[in-house]
Amino acid sequence: MFGTEARDALYDIIRMRRDVRAEFAGEKVDDDVLWRVLAAAHHAPSVGNTQPWDFVVVQDEQRLKEFAEHVAGCRQAFADSLPEDRKRTFDPIKIEGIVESRTGIVVTYDPERGGRHILGRHTIDESGLFSAVLAIQNLWLAATAEGLGVGWVSFYEEDFLADFVGVQAPTRPIAWLCVGPVTRLQEIPDLERFGWRTGRPLEEAVHWDAISAPRHDA
Ligand SMILES: Cc1cc2nc3c(=O)[nH]c(=O)nc-3n(C[C@H](O)[C@H](O)[C@H](O)COP(=O)(O)O)c2cc1C
After folding, report:
1. Residue 216's pLDDT is what?
2. Which UniProt keywords apply (predicted)?
């Protein structure tokens, strides 16, 4: 169905996608590109085809600054909670590019979208939330293909962000995404580069039959 070039491009995009904090170029994403990226998000699979997400785009500089101030307070509270050695490692790590990215996209999750009888959410209630997260991943990969950076910010109080974008319970804001053109994408994730935490090999994450079972044909 797809040629090798398209297949390889997809794998490249998946591999090169980064969480971006410091590399935003300071230009605003073009509207047509923004719509393409949002359309990719909206193409995500969802339990019972409920599409339980909404996207709130924030571009006003004052509002971006206001949210960034709130996030700075949450970052400080996390830093204060750390033991001395972890605090030293955390200190130089930038955790957001809210103002520099020029665009914030708040993704919300509405657990009531689709009514009471949702096909596939009968026993696993979180499958609704999982669906909204898949929209975020689609957005992230499409943005990477468009040469944009995305940074997921979760250093916020949920009530603050709900008020900020006018979301009423039971709908929840589940992510603030900084989205904008970048100067480059880092090859190595920031948390590895700054010595906070490294990734684990695939072999450690893949299991056959059961989590602790040895592989039969190994
Ligand atoms: C649910 C979620 C929340 C995250 N929250 C933050 C955040 O608040 N600040 C930040 O700098 N990075 C955040 N990240 C980015 C991760 O730190 C990053 O994905 C991870 O270190 C791997 O790096 P990579 O995405 O560049 O591969 C978040 C990622 C996810 C999936």
Report:
1. 62
2. Oxidoreductase
- Ligand 1 centre distance from Cα of residue 19 (Å): 6
> What's the gap between Cα 60 and its chain centre?
21
Closest CA to 147 of 118, 94, 185: 185
Q: Is 20-183 a domain of CATH 3.20.20.190?
A: no
**How far apart are the CA of 1 and the centre of ligand 1, in A?**
33
Residue to mutate (ligand 1; options 21, 95, 101, 154; most atoms within 8 A of CB): 154
Q: Any idea where the domains of the chain sit in the sequence?
A: 20-183
Q: Tell me which residue has its CA closest to atom 6 in ligand 1.
A: 153
Q: How far is the CA of 153 from the centre of ligand 1 (A)?
A: 7
Q: pTM above the 0.90 mark?
A: yes
Choose among 136, 134, 104: nearest CA to 29: 104
Contacting residues for 70 by C-beta, under 8 A, at least 6 apart:
156, 157, 160, 164
Helices (H), the chain: 4-16, 31-42, 61-81, 84-90, 127-145, 158-165, 190-193, 202-205
Rounded percentage of the chain residues whose pLDDT exceeds 70: 97
Which run of H or of E encompasses 154?
Answer: none
pLDDT digits (tens, 9 = 90+) for 102-117: 999 999 999 999 999 9
Residue 177: strand pairing partners? 105, 152
Q: What is the distance in A from the centroid of ligand 1 to the CA of 136?
A: 12
